[in-house]
Amino acid sequence: MDIIGFLKSQFICHLLICYIFIVSGLIINFIQLFTLVLWPINKQLFRKINCRLAYCISSQMVMLLEWWSGTDCTLYTDPESYHKYGKESAIVILNHNYEIDFLCGWNFCERFGVLGSSKVLAKKELSYVPIIGWMWYFLEIVFCKRKWEEDRKTVMQSLLNLRDYPEKFWFLIHCEGTRFTEQKHQISMQVAEAKGLPKLKYHLLPRTKGFAVTVQSLRNVVSAVYDSTLNFRNNENPTLLGVLNGKKYHADLYVRRIPLEEVPEDEQECSKWLHKLYQEKDAFQEEYYRTGAYPATPIVPPRRPWTLLNWLFWALLLLYPLFQLLINMVSSGSSLTLASFAFVIIVASVGVRWMIGVTEINKGSTYGNNDNKQKQM
């Protein structure tokens, strides 16, 4: 292992990266709180400012993938569609198979300049989580409780609120609702058989109601649906811990641009359309596993420097006072001070491991398991 690779794998480096992310994130959340005074005065200015503030947080995660890990991301798409990316608002359908697929989705947004304004459909509990969750609150992210009877009205209202959004935005949605596992897939295909739906080999059944409401609410605002299918070469199984350790992965992302006019307005017809789309996604997965490529032109979008520059700014701003504090603590020689510092390090290490554990597949949501079982009862 080379010296840089060795340093990237060291826990002290991980701790410093997390320190920068956490402290800068809390500072930005605090600034976002003060922007609330702008909402009744100039809502659009509030939104534009919060897009930039949100970018300062989310771009640090993308920096880990692009610059720290050095992961290669190849985009397979139609060259005519490629020139429209970043110049229009869109609904982005992502498959949900990997621990870092959300990070690759953000990387896709970053390459085309819409990371700061990107939206997601997220569970309500995340809105209470410091840094990312609070950032999403100020970005007007659409939150749901995963109980459609309660969610329909609130989700639709949140989406309608985005109709006058001043920035181009991509609305990222995992229609499967939860990350793919063999257990969830087995249950999902039992539901497909019970409902007379075609079975899928590489995806869970899509949840059509949320997608239909999204299309209805954002029609004439977004221009297209970007059907996106992510895979990694050489049977790589990427993890956030691997990215943090500086491990390089090789991602292939297939994106089809589908004009929104081609998506039916009627909810039942929209549901049929989405099921057909997932059958096509399954076929694309089959072809990728067989040939190692997608049926489109491979393009590597240029990597922009802003994620790295943003991280370097916060690193220079926050590391100096940290090192100054550590020097003062060590020079004081106080046993209580040193013990307190050791305690903080232990707590921080546990916190870092917990944050990484949240993304791990085997510790993921049981939503797909429980919900599908209930449907069969």
From TrEMBL:
Pathway linked to the protein: Lipid metabolism; Phospholipid metabolism; CDP-diacylglycerol biosynthesis; CDP-diacylglycerol from sn-glycerol 3-phosphate: step 2/3
EC number: 2.3.1.51
Domain Phospholipid/glycerol acyltransferase stretches: 90-212
Entry annotated with the keyword Protein biosynthesis: no
Record flagged with keyword Transferase: yes
Reaction catalysed by this enzyme: a 1-acyl-sn-glycero-3-phosphate + an acyl-CoA = a 1,2-diacyl-sn-glycero-3-phosphate + CoA; 1-octadecanoyl-sn-glycero-3-phosphate + (4Z,7Z,10Z,13Z,16Z,19Z)-docosahexaenoyl-CoA = 1-octadecanoyl-2-(4Z,7Z,10Z,13Z,16Z,19Z-docosahexaenoyl)-sn-glycero-3-phosphate + CoA; (4Z,7Z,10Z,13Z,16Z,19Z)-docosahexaenoyl-CoA + 1-(9Z-octadecenoyl)-sn-glycero-3-phosphate = 1-(9Z-octadecenoyl)-2-(4Z,7Z,10Z,13Z,16Z,19Z-docosahexaenoyl)-sn-glycero-3-phosphate + CoA; (4Z,7Z,10Z,13Z,16Z,19Z)-docosahexaenoyl-CoA + 1-hexadecanoyl-sn-glycero-3-phosphate = 1-hexadecanoyl-2-(4Z,7Z,10Z,13Z,16Z,19Z-docosahexaenoyl)-sn-glycero-3-phosphate + CoA
A cellular component term, taken from the record's GO annotations: endoplasmic reticulum membrane
Keywords recorded for this protein, A-Z: Acyltransferase, Endoplasmic reticulum, Lipid biosynthesis, Lipid metabolism, Membrane, Phospholipid biosynthesis, Phospholipid metabolism, Transferase, Transmembrane, Transmembrane helix
Membrane spanning stretches: 12-39, 126-144, 311-330, 336-356
GO MF terms held by the record: 1-acylglycerol-3-phosphate O-acyltransferase activity
SMART domains tied to this protein: PlsC (SM00563)
Name of the top EC class for this enzyme: transferase
GO BP term (any one): phospholipid biosynthetic process
Compartments where located: Endoplasmic reticulum membrane
Superkingdom of origin: Eukaryota
InterPro entries registered for this protein in UniProt: Acyltransf_C, Plipid/glycerol_acylTrfase
Record membrane topology: Multi-pass membrane protein
Protein task: Converts 1-acyl-sn-glycerol-3-phosphate (lysophosphatidic acid or LPA) into 1,2-diacyl-sn-glycerol-3-phosphate (phosphatidic acid or PA) by incorporating an acyl moiety at the sn-2 position of the glycerol backbone. Exhibits high acyl-CoA specificity for polyunsaturated fatty acyl-CoA, especially docosahexaenoyl-CoA (22:6-CoA, DHA-CoA).
Family of this protein: Belongs to the 1-acyl-sn-glycerol-3-phosphate acyltransferase family.
Protein name: 1-acyl-sn-glycerol-3-phosphate acyltransferase delta
Taxonomic lineage: Eukaryota, Metazoa, Chordata, Craniata, Vertebrata
